[in-house]
Design a protein that fits this description.
The chain has eight helices and 48 strands. It is mainly beta.
């Protein structure tokens, strides 16, 4: 076989920390120097949120920008850490550093990141999970809210995150940083850039990261859950052969090797509502205190990810005319292996009775009764190519335009070396999925007056989706010696039924904006935009073999200013119509639990985002805040489980739910409910304090109080997380020569609100009165308080 505390104490702590200095520096208006340096005015911050250089006041969209100094100041190790400082941006991480679930402005995402929020490196699509993407050696992170399909294309229905990589200057520059913290956290990052010769520069960087798991594994003696380890390297060459031509080639390598994440199953015995029909849990779930995963029975437990990414680009200012032609190409090769105990507890659960496995009608070809079908290891290989060309008119003209074309090929396939035989026989190889995207786009901007600009953008894209179900021969994957130990070995067995499914999705996606800038430090904008996420295929065994395209229409108005004594003050209000929202659900087929995507109906989302920074005592003490209000409501949709809860077996035909039975469809309506994972209120508030000690040294301190109201696990709006309040603090010194020493604490109040809730199944429990598997809930714990020391040196 193949193996490879009390509330008074909390208030006192908040007050005492505030005396040192609570909060954050601005996410959209800080310069590229040390976080303690004075802020720039908002109209001096340059972003590339529309794939061209614009100041924050000029760009008529809601965007937050974090430069390298701000990332350091926020103590952020990943994009997900920046979500708390970005109005309208929420992250769910129920599965460690795999299965990222970003949510921008209430567009829920249950299991998968692709399709809702796009991640980009210098505008090139970044495919796959991004929670471990290194932020130590980057120039800036831009979080762009609202549909971005007209500019960034596929997979940006509700927003995009653009990570801008560092480029060398004419001088040698570098930075070294190291961190030691509890749970044996060890980090080391270094970067160096500069000229090689006239017209050629380089950039190189590395980050090494390790942390031990915070939770004991009850299933394997001496093991911890939640170990994480990363090795990331970057390198680039940059060419400026003439004043009109610029080019670069960059390489990013990423290796992650994480242990099994901590998640605990709240068992069916805790269910407290609908007990006579389809029992469920109603109310705030309880934080889990014990966790167990049978990692010793997994082929490769945890997460292993190995990726190489290449980006090449060239731009030409045609004969110095201001007309620019540019081309960018990207390539990524990602291998990801996930070993998971899908019971989410220490019990060794089997689908088949162990006493009967392999006997009589329980005897199956190539069956290994020693292996539970819940203990799975899955390998995926993903290769992606992207190409984009564009032609742009001079940026100083009153009438400006841009045209371009984009093409990509994204292919995912299962890795046969991680297939296993288990209690129900051979595992199936995952479908091979290929998506070809072709898009044509353009945009116009016209300065109607000196203060008013009207812009329009349009993108027409064609997605061709292909899903192939592969087969394999048992003898080609498993050795003869191993097959001799299983039930009814047959090396010539062909596993799977080959098949091919194809679909084409077309969309024309507009964005229209009006920007009014009556003063240098004041602007107003209004915007209409549409975004989409193309449909696709589930596995053929899923209850719904295909899911439809999602479409989101956004209406938005906003204001940006640095008047009234604020370093910056931004306000936006939006209304969104979300059609065919896709969420995910679990199902059991062929004695295997899996997930599938399903359209739930139509959702209306209304919201307000507010952020600002106000000096209290010059540059010595500043208060920073952000707040998001989200009113998200499902207006049309059904959920079969609700019908079972209300009406029980009367809504079933055999073992299947039948909503066509009398009263069942009305009972299944989820209209009026809130989409899952969406908090109605969220925000951050605090202060920053800094003061010179002498001509060389400056002392600084601060903290961030981060609040998030309760969210529901699913569309039924029954089980919920409860509200979360966390505090991060820091204190340190920096000098005028680039040395910075920081002592920090994260979640110092010890908030235990779960990071995630997964509606799941308790397979060890008895069947429900409706004959279904009993509900259980996978609860992901909040990270425990962390304390550490970071020392960095810039030169």
């Amino acid at each position: 076989m193949k193996k490879t505390k009390s509330s008074a104490h909390r208030v006192a702590l908040i007050i005492s920390t505030a005396m040192i200095g609570l909060a954050t520096t601005p996410a959209s208006a800080q310069n590229a120097g040390d976080p303690a340096a004075s802020t720039e005015s908002a109209d001096a911050i340059v972003v590339t949120a529309r794939k061209r250089a614009e100041t924050l006041l000029e760009v008529p969209i809601a965007v937050n920008a974090f430069n390298s100094a701000l990332i350091q100041d926020k103590m952020a190790q990943s994009v997900s850490d920046l979500a708390a400082f970005t109005p309208g941006f929420q992250m769910q991480q129920s599965f460690g550093r795999g299965g990222d679930r970003p949510v921008i402005r209430g567009a829920s995402n249950i299991l998968f990141s692709d399709g809702k929020v796009g991640i980009f490196l210098d505008g090139a699509p970044y495919f796959g999970d991004f929670s471990s993407l290194d932020l130590a050696n980057i120039e800036r992170v831009e979080v762009i809210k609202g549909p971005q399909s007209a500019v960034f294309g596929r997979g940006t229905l509700s927003g995009a995150v653009n990570v801008v990589l560092k480029r060398p200057t004419k001088d040698f520059e570098g930075r070294v940083s190291g961190t030691l913290a509890n749970f044996d956290r060890r980090e080391l990052s270094a970067s160096l850039s500069g000229p090689i010769m006239d017209g050629i520069g380089f950039q190189a960087g590395l980050k090494l990261f390790d942390i031990d798991g915070q939770w004991k594994n009850d299933a394997v003696r001496g093991e911890r859950l939640g170990d994480q380890s990363s090795r990331q390297y970057t390198a680039g060459l940059f060419f400026d052969p003439t004043e009109d031509i610029k080019a670069s080639v960059r390489w990013l390598h990423q290796t992650d090797d994480d242990g099994h994440f901590a998640i605990g199953l709240q068992p069916a015995s805790a269910n407290n509502c609908f007990l006579s029909t389809r029992p469920y849990y109603c109310g705030v779930v309880k934080p889990m205190t014990r966790f167990g995963a049978n990692t010793d029975r997994l082929l490769r437990p945890g997460l292993y990810r190995n990726a190489d990414r290449f980006i090449g680009d060239i731009s030409w200012d045609i004969a110095g005319s201001g007309y620019e032609a540019s081309f960018q190409a990207g390539y990524s090769d990602l291998q990801e292996v996930t070993g998971l105990d899908q019971t989410y507890d220490a019990r060794g659960v089997y689908f088949l009775p162990q006493s009967l496995c392999g006997r009589s009608f329980y005897a199956l070809p190539n069956q290994d009764c020693r292996k539970s079908s819940f203990e799975t290891t899955t390998g995926t290989r993903r290769k992606t190519q992207t190409y984009e060309g564009r032609l742009t008119s001079p940026s100083a003209d009153r009438f400006r335009w841009r045209l371009g074309m984009f093409h990509s090929v994204d292919k995912q396939s299962g890795m046969s070396e991680y297939l296993e035989l288990n209690e129900v026989g051979p595992e199936l190889l995952d479908d091979t999925r290929r998506v070809r995207n072709l898009a044509f786009f353009g945009g116009l901007d016209f300065d109607v007056t000196r203060t008013v600009t009207v812009g329009a953008e349009l993108r027409h894209q064609i997605d061709k989706v292909r899903s192939e179900t592969p087969t394999y021969r048992i003898g080609d994957v498993f050795s003869a010696d191993y097959l001799a130990t299983v039930v009814l070995p047959n090396p010539n067995t062909i596993v799977g039924v080959a098949g091919t499914r194809k679909a084409t999705f077309k969309a024309t996606l507009p964005r229209v904006t009006v920007n009014w800038k009556p003063e240098r430090n004041l602007s107003f904008y209004a915007q209409f935009s549409q975004g989409n996420s193309p449909g696709g295929f589930n596995k053929t065994s899923a209850p719904e073999p295909i899911f439809k395209e999602e479409k989101l229409t956004n209406y938005e108005i906003g204001m940006k200013t640095s008047k009234f004594g604020f370093d910056y003050l931004n306000l936006s209000a939006f209304w969104q119509d979300y059609k065919n929202q896709v969420l995910t659900n679990t199902y059991v087929a062929n004695n295997v639990v899996d997930s599938y995507s399903v359209n739930i109906g139509r959702t209306r989302i209304r919201g307000i985002e507010l952020e600002g920074q106000l000096p209290l005592v010059g540059d010595i003490l500043k208060v920073q805040f952000n707040y998001t209000f989200l009113d998200a409501e499902i207006r049309k949709g059904v959920e079969a489980e609700k019908a079972l809860e209300l009406l029980g077996r009367s809504c079933k035909t055999g073992s299947a739910v039948n909503l066509d039975l009398p009263g069942c469809r009305d009972a299944a309506s989820i209209a009026g409910n809130r989409p899952p994972l969406v908090s109605k209120h969220s925000g951050t508030v605090g202060l920053r304090f800094q003061h010179p000690v002498d001509d060389n040294w400056t002392v600084f301190s601060g903290a961030d109080v981060i609040y998030r109201s309760s969210y529901f696990d699913q569309v039924l709006n029954l089980a919920e997380s409860g509200a979360s309040t966390q505090m991060n603090v820091q204190f340190g010194l920096h000098d005028s020569h680039g040395l910075r020493v920081t002592v920090y604490g994260k979640n110092v109040l010890g908030d235990e609100t779960p990071l995630g809730i997964l509606r799941y199944l308790d397979f060890a429990a008895a069947r429900t009165p409706t004959g279904d598997y009993a509900r259980g809930f996978g609860i992901t714990p909040a990270r425990k308080p962390e304390y550490g020391l970071t020392v960095s040196k810039s030169f």
